[in-house]
Amino acid sequence: MKKSTTRAMLGVGALLIAITTLAGCSNGAGAGTGSGSGGGDASKAKIGLLLPDSVTARYASADRPLFTAEIKKQCSGCSVVYANADGDASKQLQQAQSMLTQGVKVLVLDPFDGEAAASIVQQAKAKKVPVISYDRLIDSPDLSYYISFDNEKVGQLQGQALVDALKAKKVPAGSGIIMVNGSPTDNNASQFKKGAHSVIDKSDYKVLAEYDTPGWDPAKAQDWASGQISKLGADKITGVYAANDDTGGGVIAALKSSGVKTLPPVTGQDASLAGIQRILAGEQYMTVYKAFKPEASQAADLAIQFAQGKSPKGDSTVKTAKGDSVPSTLLDPVAVTTDNVQDTVIKDGLYTTKQVCTSQYAAACSTAGIN
Q: What global pTM score does this model have?
């Protein structure tokens, strides 16, 4: 075991002993008024933003800049302390500890591992620093807030789109699909999978094989898909459920490498630029657009409120894996195909027409009515 990880675990153990002596209840992080949360001028608050990995394109292209811009818009004297865990739960713990030492008033945490990140929430609670669980749910009773999307609905949208595409292609009942799910350490991934299965399991199509992709790594998804193509035969794979655009891109690369000329319908999620372009080119069937701008903006607004000592109540609640209720905001996801690229990601300003319709995709954009 790494020495840094051992020290972190020992630190968590000591804090756990200290925490048991503190009065409080579920969601007890409360407002940022303790010594560790700065305790000073909220107009100059430090806000911690912890993101989980670098393989998911949206974090660098959308979440971080949108969140930072909204913080600056609402509080010109505030600053964002940023870190990316690069797919390492231990590293994320260390990053959070560093931010707490620096005196952040609020942590906005998108966990790489939703269970492991509970220790971050415990340490933040000991310093009276509220934690907002961003996009992925942390399995902790002491969360102050959770903002994300209806993740089972995301899976339902993906599953329904795949089934509809197969029916439209008149793929015979009983034909097979493969499922490439998200990371086993991501609570959201289990919800996407549950939602997708709720549709696919009731359809006329059968799941030939299924894979939970460690760390959402596209290369691992591609390797697994290549193995399944060799094992099952490319002609037996008539559809692909991929939990996001990056893993979907890995499967598409595997299919193309095996010589498949007419790709089966492939799902996705996150409306990445590459994913949108694959949709327009006819390589990927659909994606799910989760409006990152309102998600990031509302997360920033919540962070400012907590830094000011307020306690936002949420418009709903979500239960953690252990059954604890967390005040929440859940936004609506939208399925995107060639038919509505213009009216979703371009209309909302996620991408400009120029970004999407490069010379390689100009003809496809014209066909889709994007100009």
A: 0.77
